[in-house]
Design a protein that fits this description.
Length: about 270
């Protein structure tokens, strides 16, 4: 009886030790996103490159490249982490799903950290604040002076964007037309398939520079989410802190403001070519 009891105790102890060993090994193998990024030597950033001056395509030294101040910010984040930057282009709407699935490490794409998105992913500090404006045809400018003037109208907005939510929740009886690509939405406006387009003011101003038949109305919407931020997976505190350090450094030095100026100039040059 005693020997049997001793054997049972020894067996139970061994099982416990083995279990702890497996748990310990598992915890060592699990790395947070910041560690994983540094280990692989690159950070994969998702963005929708149809949103000048945030991110857009331009011919640089004879090559088609994705540029803009979101790209400049991404480059600085990568530099501070000591890794290379890889930009993964996709439409705006699937970005959060791609982040959660591990296809990208972060989102830098003029994204507003609204409450719905905060339930799915975490965000950095705000790196840029912008108002949302209403783009219309120049000939119709006098028709759109207040939000009430948008009532019942065909309103364009980017699929999955904050502007979609504004159009659907703020504009009464709006017939909201959604497309994934902002450039296509601008074309819809120019061809009278929509009567107004809600977008961020810098994007609207870029569109007007090469489309003089368009104009920015007096209607504006404040950004309740506070501006644009970098999106990361839930619970990645180390990575969020790392990104916030870069954002703060660029704000303190004035470089972030310069990125915005440079991106606007580059977008204007690109559209005039």
């Amino acid at each position: 009886m005693k020997m049997g009891l001793i054997k049972k105790i020894i067996a139970t102890t061994l099982v416990g030790v083995m279990t702890l060993s497996f748990v310990g090994c598992g915890s060592k193998e699990e790395k947070n996103d910041l560690e994983s990024i540094k280990e692989k030597g690159k950070v994969v950033v998702g963005m929708s490159a149809d949103y000048a001056p945030y991110e857009f395509h331009a011919m640089i030294d004879g090559k088609d490249k994705v540029v803009g101040f979101d790209v400049d910010l991404a480059n600085e984040i990568a530099k501070d982490m000591g890794v290379e930057l890889e930009i993964k282009e996709m439409e705006f709407d699937p970005l959060i799903g791609a982040l959660k699935a591990g296809q990208i490490d972060m989102i830098i794409s003029g994204m507003n950290p609204d409450e719905k998105r905060k339930k799915q992913i975490d965000f950095s500090d705000i790196y840029y604040e912008a108002k949302h404006g209403v783009l219309v045809k120049q000939e119709n400018l006098d028709k759109f002076k207040t939000v009430d003037d948008l009532t019942g109208k065909k309103i364009g907005a980017q699929l999955g964007s904050t502007q979609q939510e504004i159009a659907e929740k703020t504009v009464k009886d709006a017939d909201v037309q959604l497309l994934a690509n902002v450039n296509n939405l601008i074309l819809e406006l120019k061809t009278d398939k929509v009567e107004a387009l809600i977008t961020e003011e810098p994007v609207a101003k870029m569109a007007i520079k090469t489309n003089p038949e368009l104009a920015l109305s007096e209607i504006t919407f404040e950004d309740s989410a506070g501006g644009n931020a970098v999106g990361m997976r839930k619970g990645q505190t180390d990575l969020v802190n790392q990104v916030n350090k870069t954002i703060q450094r660029l704000k303190d030095s004035g470089e972030l403001d310069q990125f915005i100026v440079d991106a606007n100039e580059l977008a204007a040059q690109n559209q005039s070519n």
